[in-house]
Structure formats: C-alpha cells, structure tokens
Amino acid sequence: MESIRSVPGVGSKMAERFAILGIRTLEDMISFMPRSYDDRTQERMIADTTEENPTAICRIYVKKTSSFYNKKHEKTLKATVVDDEGTEMDLLCFNRSFLENSLYPGSSWYIIAQIMIKDDPTFFGRKRYRSSASFELKKTKSEAGIGTILPIYPLTEGLTEKIMRQAAEYALRTLDIMDSLPFSIYERYHLLHEKEAYNLLHFPKSLKDAERARKSLAFSELFSLLFPLLRGKPERKSGSVPMTESEKALISSLPFSLTEDQLKAAEEIREDLSSGTPMNRLLQGDVGSGKTLVAWISALHAIEKGGQVAFMAPTELLAKQHADGASDLLSKLGIRIAFLSGNVKGQPRRLLLQSLKNGDIDLIIGTHALFSEDVEFRNLTLAIIDEQHRFGIRQREALAEKGHKPSVLYMTATPIPRSLALTMLADYDISTLKTMPSGRIPIKTHTVFQESTRKAMYETIGVEFQRGHQAYFVYPRIDDEGEGNLLDVTTMYSKLKEIYPEVPSALIHSKLPEEEKMQILNDFRNKKIMYLVATSVVEVGIDVPDATCMVIEHAERFGLAALHQLRGRVGRSSLPSYCFLVAIGNLTEDARQRLKIMKETNDGFLIADKDLEIRGPGDIGDGERQSGFIALKFSSIATDLRLVEAVRAECERILKEDRGLLKAENAPLRNISQKR
Fold first, then answer.
1. Which of 31, 50, 81, 243 could make an SS bond with 60 (beta carbons 3.0 to 4.6 A apart)?
2. The whole model's pTM is what?
C-alpha cells in the first residue's frame, strides 16, 4: 500500500492530519466517503437561492464599494454587486480589506456564496440580499466549478476541501482498482464495476451517479462481510422431528394453547437438536410473547434424548424467577432441577456441583456462576442464554465450552432489526415470536410534559388501585446524588406514600440484598404490595398479571429499548393497561422522537428498527456497548435493508449452487492493488 505522503504536496505534517481522519494510504483515501456533494451543474442566481439551498453560483459585477470601521477600529469592506439578472447583493468583507484590489467598481467575478435575506422596510419593499462573510471569488466558470459536482468531505484542522479533492484525484489516477465480486453479479444487479464506482463516488456527473456508485460499493462491502459468515455456517438437514412424550405432556397440561409462532419456533429448535450439528439459534420475541415456555419445551427434548441443559440469566433475581417457574412446570414431569448463583456457597454448592457432574441434575438454572471453573457437566447438550445482549461473547463461549460442542439457544426480548440480523447475525439461525398470546390488550401510552398533567396521572392510578390493580413507579436514580432536578426512588417513595397513604408499597433497587428483592417481588406477586417504587431493576423478567400501570419518570433519559422493556411489565393479562412517560422540561430532538415513537406503537420490532436509525446498531459481538455504528464505509445497516437482503440472497445462492464458484470465477482477495 502506498502512503498518503506520495500525494504531491503532502508532507509529514499534512500526513498526520490525514491520519486523524483514518487516511494513511491511497487506498484509505479512495475509500473515504464524501459526506455530501456541492451541486454546481447549473448556475444559480442570487434570487433563486432558498433556505434549503442557499448557495449562489453565478457571475457578478461590482457596482460600488465603501469601507467602515467597527469599535475595535477594524476595517470592513462593503461591496455592492449585481448578477446577470440585475439582482443586487451586499458583500461584507470583515478583516479582508485586501479584497479592495479585486472588488473594485467595474470588475467581474464568478462567486460561490451562502445568501442571507435581510428584511429592510426602507428598501422600497424589495428583498435585500447579503452574502455570508465567507465566499469564494473565481475568474472563470471552470475555476468556479460550474458544470460539475464537487465532493464535500469531513475535515480536520489543517485540511481543506481543495487538498482532499486533490488527494482523491491523485489516488484514483495512481491505483489499479480491481473488481472483488464474481463478474456475473455486476450484470445481475446492474452494479458499477469498482473502478468506475470509486471515480463516480468522488467525482460524480450527477447526484444519481453518486448514489449508484455508493450502492455498488456497498454491495461489495456487505458481500465481503456476509460471505465468510455464511460460508462458515454448517448446513443442516431439515425434516419433521416428532415431539418427545415429555414435550407433549407439558403442552397438554397448559391452560392455554401455544401460538403458531411458538409451535414453529419449538419445531425449528427440535430439528436443530436432531440434526447432528450444534445449534446456534437466536429466539427473539417481544416482551410477553412466550419465549421462556419455548425454551422449557426445547429443554425437555434435549433432556429426554439423554442430555443436560443449562439456563443462564443475567441477574440472580431473574434466574431465581426462572427457576421457580421451571419448577412449577417441569418438576411434575420428573425433571431434576437445580439453581446456582454466586450466593450458593460451601457444602450446598459442593453437593450441587457433584450431582451436576454425576448427571443427577437434568436442568440447572443460574447466573454467570454457571461458567465458573468448578462447574462441570456429565453431558451438557443444550445451553440457553436469556437476554443474550447482556452477556459478552466471551462469557457466552465460556458456558458453551462446558460441554462437547453443545447446542446454544440465545433469547432476547429486545427484537433485533431485520437488517442487523441479516448481517451481524448471519451465522445464527433465527426464530421469531411476533404473535402475542390471545386475550392481550395493547397498552395505552401517554406522555406527561406538564406538572398539571401529573396530578391527573396520579388520580388515574388511584382508580386502578381501587379496582385491585397494581402499579410500578420507575425513576433513574436511587437517591438525589446532588442533582436536585432529578427525581429519585428514595425521595419519591416518601412522597408517593403521602399521595396513596392507604395503599401498601415497597421500595426496590439494585443496592438491596437479593433475598430482600425476591421477597418484595413475591409479596408484589401475591398482592401484599400494590405498587413498587423502583429503578430499572424491574426492566426484565417480572410477570405480574394484575399490574396495569407503569410510570417512567425522566423518560427522556431512557433509550427506546429500555422504555419498551419497562412498558412490557404491564399488559400481561386481559386487563386494560397504561404506561405514563413523564418528561417535564427541555427535551432534545432525539428524546422527543423516542417518546413519540413509544406513544405511537407497541410493536417491539418497529421500535427496534427506529432505535437502530436513531442510535446505530451497537457492538453486537461484545454485548457491552449498546450504541454506536458498525464500521462500514459505504453501507448503512439502518437504511439499506433491501441491499442487505439482496447481498445475503446472492451469498446463499452461490453457496448452494457451487461452493467453489467464487474461487473459480475471479474473486481476488483484495479489490485494490497498486499499479506497478
């Protein structure tokens, strides 16, 4: 690769400035995406400028000039100019008195300037045009770039658009750009070959050309991302696999029927578990869609085939609830269940681990303690990981390594946007639960932007208490922490007791001991407590059918996924339910957008797509960063769904028809090589 220093005029200092932008080589330069384009294909007269397109590009004639001084005795040149249509404009040249030698009466220039309109009642009712202080003067049309489209790049201090364009021109002349896709793909999808695409990306003949060039390069980029993932994905033989007797027994014991999505997901998992190849499947579904029940059905299949199952949850509170639920459903079928967390110690832990190693435990449910070094299985064949985005990839692998290539089922109640799933999760099989259990009523979401509305909210919740229903009040902080403008659970717990003096309540947050939290939730579930004052500790895993009201204070401080998860704690029965998003004060545009989305829809998949557009896809591999953008240069996971689908379909076609096609056809490993 040739250094960016090979560009004429780029020395070591300039190269350091390019490096700040991530440009160290000529290859980096041509892959550096312009952020926009300056369309100068047509002259634009002063009067033709608009608020959306305020740039004038035209010939002007200087009528007269004058000078004045400000309070700091700095000289400003004022030039009155007129274009070919006779429209006058003032040019104010602050601290640029040297322009007196150029802008003199009778002189003519081509100008590129941002135009502002000043309303002046003394100017005989006519609009008065002014240029911004920054403008360009050129002697000829070609110098002004009229008839062209110029790239606008992100810059850093010391770099100008002119320098960036010269570097791009040099790199495009110097590099030998080769295609990276099979030739047939260019014809099938009407893609530009990469040499032409790179040239039109930087110096397009039209804005349509620029977008076509971007999409062509985005196709190549996505192909290089997806093809290795899909090529490494094992082929599975599909075919109907019958349920085991224990699966049938569990389903027949339920007081309701499974949804079509649940039945389909369970069937897909059975096929995977019987394929002879370790499963790598994501089970995604909106809050309350019944993912955990599908997991227990799948666990029964693995256990009846002689395997052990590990179920891992992100918190002890959630793990204990899963263990209680599994015990209620599965113990009567003879399934031997155990619970493990960091708080299980001493002799009880040693006995439990010995039973697990001997194969006397069929299903173990716990926290990250499951991947401790001393945890051994006799025959771990299925690992189920709940809320998989809360664990890092190394943690998930550590659990999977407890068996001999066990199948892994990941579960998430945060739906993955389709475009993201098709790319970053290409090596996963995905089962989706969209259908909600019958009888559920959509949650009504209200925004509270004024203190006067808060009183009406409290009255509404009071009526729900009279009906025997329950509520959550969620706040972002445990205590004041010195920020008096933020409501916190400790302060509000006392205030809410004044508002509802006869209603039993409890305070719950992350600093409470696990045993105390579990006791509070049991009391809440048994209606000894009618409302919880909580932090986001109640975000996942709590299922209380009589809870019908969710209040989220400072809702503007929560992301869309967290808001949707919190709202999902209510509406878990046939009772009408309500969510109040309280955000009083000045809000950012992003915050207003998030709250608007929450009010308009209960669809978690649509919310996930909107979240992707607002925040970016995050670092899916690590599960530690939940915002930020995947490092793609030409494609956008948020907006290029159709392109992602086309690329994935092409990758799958190639792999299905002939896994050797890519190598046989052309496919160099690199798409850019330097001319020799």
1. 81
2. 0.65
